[in-house]
């Protein structure tokens, strides 16, 4: 393939594909009629911050709960009435033994969790199988296409078809890719994308890998969550 400077224009019957230099925008385009809500954005930012600390806070609460559940079974070893050989004084270096006992139990639990995490990661490497299973069960990693991948795949297939004119094998594969894109251009995710594009940028054109009927169905599709 020859290096061609941008912009690039391709002509194909009624189709005109144009690639222009991209410009980056700081903010995501909002639908026409939408207005930014400072309170809503502030509330979502605080909610996001709480979510980021959820794992750490949950681990601390979990460790504290187990510590308090175990403490009644070990408390007698830190009391004056303890007559067993394995007992502790009321104070250790001037600190009440109760605090030392609770801290020791909590530390042991945290070390146990860390040990399990180490075995999970370094010894058994279960995260690799977990990732594999998660990807196998994700249709958009195996066989399905999201709207952005529909567009990217269709563009690449169209370029392949035009660059390999006369090569029947590559033409068949390019047509297969376009058929794949057309299949997932008739679903709910693509319909949501089309309706949003219509709001943000005006009427969405009928793309070369689909047809007017499919685009109309996308615009008329109603969503249960709205």
Characterise this structure.
A hairpin with a 2-residue loop joins strand 1 and strand 2 (15-19). This protein has helices at residues 38-52, 54-74, 97-123, 126-136, 139-142, 147-163, 168-184, 188-201, 212-220; strands at residues 8-12, 15-19, 91-92, 95-96. It is mainly α and 226 residues long. The strands form 2 sheets. The chain has a two-stranded antiparallel sheet with strand order 1-2. A two-stranded antiparallel sheet has the order 3-4. The two termini are 46 Å apart. It is built from 9 helices and 4 strands. Helices cover 60% and strands 6% of the residues. Helix 8 (188-201) packs across helix 9 (212-220).
In a few lines, what is going on in this structure?
By secondary structure, the protein is mainly alpha-helical. The protein is built from nine helices and four strands, in the order E-E-H-H-E-E-H-H-H-H-H-H-H.
Order of helices and strands: EEHHEEHHHHHHH
Rounded to the nearest angstrom, the radius of gyration is 31 Å
Q: Quick one: overall form?
A: elongated
* Count of the domains: 2
End-to-end Cα distance: 46 Å
Number of helices: 9
Task: Write a concise keyword list for the protein shown above.
226 residues, mainly alpha, 2 domains, two-stranded antiparallel sheet, 9 helices, 4 strands, disordered N terminus
Topology, please?
Elements: E1 8-12, E2 15-19, H1 38-52, H2 54-74, E3 91-92, E4 95-96, H3 97-123, H4 126-136, H5 139-142, H6 147-163, H7 168-184, H8 188-201, H9 212-220
Antiparallel strand pairs: 1-2, 3-4
Helix pairs in contact: 2-3, 6-7, 8-9
